[in-house]
Amino acid sequence: MNHSSLRDSAAEALRRTRAANPLIHTITNFVTVNDCANIILAAGGSPTMAHDPREVEEIAAVSQAVVLNMGAIEDLDAMILAGREAGRRGIPVVLDPVAAGASRLRRESCVKLLEQVPLTIVRGNASEIKALAVGSSSTRGVDAGGADIITEKTLPAAVQMAGDLSRRLNAVIAISGVIDVVALDGRAVWLRNGCAEMSRITGSGCMLTALLGAVAGANRGRPFEAAVAAVGMMGFAGELAQQRMRELGGGTATFRACLIDAVSMMTPDQLKGGLQIEGNE
Amino acid sequence: MNHSSLRDSAAEALRRTRAANPLIHTITNFVTVNDCANIILAAGGSPTMAHDPREVEEIAAVSQAVVLNMGAIEDLDAMILAGREAGRRGIPVVLDPVAAGASRLRRESCVKLLEQVPLTIVRGNASEIKALAVGSSSTRGVDAGGADIITEKTLPAAVQMAGDLSRRLNAVIAISGVIDVVALDGRAVWLRNGCAEMSRITGSGCMLTALLGAVAGANRGRPFEAAVAAVGMMGFAGELAQQRMRELGGGTATFRACLIDAVSMMTPDQLKGGLQIEGNE
Amino acid sequence: MNHSSLRDSAAEALRRTRAANPLIHTITNFVTVNDCANIILAAGGSPTMAHDPREVEEIAAVSQAVVLNMGAIEDLDAMILAGREAGRRGIPVVLDPVAAGASRLRRESCVKLLEQVPLTIVRGNASEIKALAVGSSSTRGVDAGGADIITEKTLPAAVQMAGDLSRRLNAVIAISGVIDVVALDGRAVWLRNGCAEMSRITGSGCMLTALLGAVAGANRGRPFEAAVAAVGMMGFAGELAQQRMRELGGGTATFRACLIDAVSMMTPDQLKGGLQIEGNE
After folding, report:
1. Considering CB atoms only, which of C71, C102, C203 is closest to A59?
2. Is residue C173 pLDDT above 80, yes or no?
3. Taking the model in full, what pTM does it have?
């Protein structure tokens, strides 16, 4: 275990993101698309949300990372085209399997996408990752909810699940929740950053996925370090935002603005100091 | 008349919403979809914005309420599928007939939806409700505007119109404006909460519709009380937000954040104290 | 040169916008559509984002301006229908050629739109305007980026390009960047308002385009003065927002709220005092 080195690499990953201004091709849902664009900009990247199948390959080809958010289920064809083009060029691809187990359409779409697109990082909550791990035969809907919260008790099982899925997909798996897990093959860490307000706004998960794209795009060949950096950055930004929201006497909308603010103002040294990483790396 | 009991039931409706965390299936327009998701979360619900016809019935079936916002006119088929599934299961359906009279497409779509989906609550401004009341033969466009503002003088006519439409649709009718009207069959109340800034941001109406879904979903079998609670909650939140915006020296974007903040922080007792209800219940 | 008269006409253009409450039919992309609606409201207009081909002609016909944002590339048919209807009625049409050179689809769509829709104002950054000026034969993608920033050195060339394109399209050309250029035939001015934070949020460009629609819609027959007013208003609002963000100790999300706030609170006299106009008018 060498978490001070992960802390260093996270700071370095953020530094590179701000310096490289990576173009992040993000195909994402209409609910939180504006937040995703703004968080990419806050981290130092440039977003493009092109999602027309007639142009996504051209756009993906000149991007530094491609982000595919299954909330935009109607854009599945565009996602596969963009993801395959990225794969051909060695451009990192980040997948968010939004509500993966909630309908037959989503289960089948996930299977299709996993078969056709090589993934670099997959991020979901515990139930979404579980839906991918269990496979398309699952018939559970949104009621997979119980599995959604990683507690001290369920942490070992979550780490195991993430590692297994990582080996199967040959990708970094990031599970977000009260405790976040990041796994790649035999490596796994968990992070205790974050706050309760993150689940009282829409977009915390989608924004983290977009942030993973930005950081991975600027740190090619280092997806595990990039994922730890992005997951930690979002969680730590949540803590700073909670504190600021309380000082201002605000509610959830204030929290949301403070969250993006915190990402936009975070320095590499601040990030290094704020990360709470544990694990068996 | 017993408005202290409506005040009590509104407080109770909010308490239940926060406790039940209802899943609100919202098919809504892309302009304000993020605000709608955030207001549902602020009230204590969980939003899902699934709108693909291939999955909306599955999603509606496990939801506590279905919200149909005609601003998403291109999703009419999905709305009808979700609404009918909700109807089969006794799940409350809330309709927002956005710009109902503004085009032939909208008039025809409204007729189709009213014929096929059993509604629990319909919310619009005066001109939208009038467009439904008058029916599809109306050829007026967006210029129905004059009818948009309920004044002391037009209040009796608005109450009458709401009651008549309520009987015809067998649903609660909520008309929002400077004065808000809520009617169910012979019952009708009006609320004097709210502020002018609500019409200087986009989404006040759509957010109220989403909030109606959240509160109705957690208070099944009590749609009139739920509607009074949600309408009053949004209006009172507007007053709190106006006050806060002025303290901060902000403009319309500050107001919008303060509005969602106020909903997220509102306690049942605060709501009870803030409601300004009158009427002939 | 008579810039005090342009300052006066800008103040007058804002005064008219607040008084006329113009209906602005905006067909725009899903990333920043909410910001566009809110900036139109902040300026005193009323937005409608109808984009279904079956109704856009009816909606355009009763609007005071039509805004076409090519970010919504999937809505090209609706844009052409709305734009042509506006043309038939003498209603101003504002075009934003988002990422005009970034894909073959966008180049071809621009050509099609320019052929079929009479334009009143075109606004883009330097590379987008360059893509239109060079025409569809260009094969450069998003990497036209170098041309994106207008510096003192490139200003004369940018003014020349804007003037040439203005004559070709018979429309006002507005190029936004560190320095903004507004040209109509032989007239050209440049504005030094604005701040760096505007490029760290999404939507600055789209919001300016929407604002151009609002101001042009309330000032028919004076598109050059309207464009100078809107471009200056957005830049000056950026300066006010930057100052306020710093006072509040906020980041990019705070800046964005302050930007819309500033537009919503700006008085004609404030605008007149804040404009930094130069040029050869």
Report:
1. C102
2. yes
3. 0.96
